[in-house]
Amino acid sequence: MPDIGASGSPATDFSVSLLGEFVRLGVRDVVLSPGARSQALALVCAELERIGQIRLHVRLDERGAGFLALGLAVESGRPTLVVCTSGTAVANLHPAVLEAHHSGVAMILLTADRPSELRGIRSNQTTLQPGLFGVATRLCIDEPAPHGAGAEPGAAISLARRATDAATGLRSLDPGPVQLNLAFREPLSAPVTLTPELISGPAGLAESAAVLSEPILSADRPEPVFLVAGGPRTVVIAGTGAGPEAEEFARAGGWPLLAEVCSGARFGPNLVSAYRELLLASDLGGRVERAVVFGHPTLSREVPAMIAREGVETIVVAPTGSEWFNPGRRVRVFARAAAPDATAVEAAGTPDGREWLGRWVMSSRHLLAAGAARESIPMSDRGITREELAAMRAPVTRPMLADAVWRSSWPHDRLVFGASRLIRVADRRVPGKKISVHSNRGLAGIDGTVATAIGIALASQTGPAPQSTGVTRLVVGDLTLLHDIGSLLLTPGEALPRLQIIVGNDGGGTIFDGLEVAASARAEAINRVLFTPQQADLANLAAAYGWSYGLAASRSDLERALTSPHAGPSILEVPLVR
Ligand SMILES: Cc1ncc(C[n+]2csc(CCOP(=O)(O)OP(=O)(O)O)c2C)c(N)n1
Ligand SMILES: [Mg+2]
């Protein structure tokens, strides 16, 4: 005879122990999609929300739910839970799991399943769920259905601990997704009432949060801290996830900082915004002898080409992760951290060192100024001129859009870019600014972008002021928005994201117009299978989902909409010419 648990349903008792432990470990956001098999987990989540222990986000579509969890985890720095039912529901999490895998984001999937006796006999809504995500999960456990044994609460607690450990990369230094596949048997749930005392154990919120973010350096293959000596002509590259460490490193070593727009390091006196053009210049890019890379560079061909070049020695720095950026497999050193040594600091002060840095920084500034002049409005001191008026009424261009969004973003705001053209336009031209920028560059998919941005917006709104008082702006192409249009579906009663989606609508995927094949293939064929035209009515879509909508046909419309965004979720459509 099994022991009888508190509720009368082993599924519910197990869920209380499991989710209670996750809360103790510092989990605050849970994303949930409805389903019968997962009802015990879902109803315990509803209780935890009621007593103020978690923020619960209910989403119909598991694909969007996965990306919402990703965005919440990226912004909050905490692992986020995803709860779903069995069958295709689980498979819908796959795109977000892959992105989280490649970008090292902690998310923990609680996938409900049939018990063993119902598997492999064509039971309804039953497939092979454990292992579905292959190598993309850091840990995957197929947990048999609880049946009320006395050891089950303890097992649930250790399961939560193992999952959190693996997802945050506490020991492995390799954070990422975890799947707990949880079998449940009838009765699938029983009524449960929770009190805060029942679940708030000794490990408080602050304590667990501190532990989650504590870096533990392993002395395996990568160097724990690599000291970079002076001498070779060096550039510092910052890709996604690089963060302020890259800027600090470049400044300490007196080296030019080639920082992508979503690197978190696009600021400071050593910044080279126009790095793509300058890497092609023989007297700058052509003379590089050493590169130190932070984060994951994805936006240019020039960076990997330089690293793969004969005569360039590369050091790649990543505090976490198990796969290393290694173009042409020519990287010499992999390290968990790096610092310039005394000889490097000394070399930075020599005429040679100063000339090298100065030339990169000044050339970049000149290029940026020339680009800005091309897009700027001619100003006169005698009020508005005819030219000025015409410029304000002219259609918006991509550079104009990138500049305007960048200018209107402040440190308490968040900026998210979709994949495709606009992030590259911004990367080529925007100057240094210490603002929070995210883009899903793990796999650079155009999927889940709206959900990711909603997650970032919602998580950004929960912390202390002033960081929590800003606006999140998402800059996307039309196809990227339409791909994730279902994520506009918000749940009544939940907090609204302060999110402005700025969609550059050029009627299809214009990034493909830049492919070499576009010059040789039949135009109709390119249109049909690459550009893939669309004529969706974004105003009506916004209305259908209850988002406010605006159209920015001119620069003055754009400036106005960006500086006074709607308080809640809104879409700003910006027509762009192909
Ligand atoms: C999930 C996924 N499918 C397909 C692609 C390939 N892809 C890259 S960009 C793009 C088109 C994007 O079009 P849009 O969002 O309108 O941006 P634009 O190129 O017009 O600026 C596609 C289909 C991808 N990156 N991810
Ligand atoms: Mg487009």
From TrEMBL:
Keywords attached to this entry: Magnesium, Manganese, Menaquinone biosynthesis, Metal-binding, Thiamine pyrophosphate, Transferase
A Pfam family recorded for this sequence: TPP_enzyme_N
Catalytic activities: isochorismate + 2-oxoglutarate + H(+) = 5-enolpyruvoyl-6-hydroxy-2-succinyl-cyclohex-3-ene-1-carboxylate + CO2
Tree of life domain: Bacteria
Cofactor(s), names only, from the UniProt record: Mg(2+); Mn(2+); thiamine diphosphate
Keyword Transferase among record annotations: yes
MF annotations from Gene Ontology: 2-succinyl-5-enolpyruvyl-6-hydroxy-3-cyclohexene-1-carboxylic-acid synthase activity
Pathway: Quinol/quinone metabolism; 1,4-dihydroxy-2-naphthoate biosynthesis; 1,4-dihydroxy-2-naphthoate from chorismate: step 2/7; Quinol/quinone metabolism; menaquinone biosynthesis
Enzyme category, top tier: transferase
UniProt keyword Transport, yes or no: no
The protein's Enzyme Commission number: 2.2.1.9
Span of domain Thiamine pyrophosphate enzyme N-terminal TPP-binding: 23-128
Cofactor note: Binds 1 thiamine pyrophosphate per subunit.
Family label: Belongs to the TPP enzyme family. MenD subfamily.
Function: Catalyzes the thiamine diphosphate-dependent decarboxylation of 2-oxoglutarate and the subsequent addition of the resulting succinic semialdehyde-thiamine pyrophosphate anion to isochorismate to yield 2-succinyl-5-enolpyruvyl-6-hydroxy-3-cyclohexene-1-carboxylate (SEPHCHC).
Quaternary structure (record): Homodimer.
PANTHER family named among the record's database cross-references: 2-SUCCINYL-5-ENOLPYRUVYL-6-HYDROXY-3-CYCLOHEXENE-1-CARBOXYLATE SYNTHASE, PROTEIN PHYLLO, CHLOROPLASTIC
Name of the protein: 2-succinyl-5-enolpyruvyl-6-hydroxy-3-cyclohexene-1-carboxylate synthase
Organism, as annotated: Cryobacterium breve
Gene name per UniProt: menD
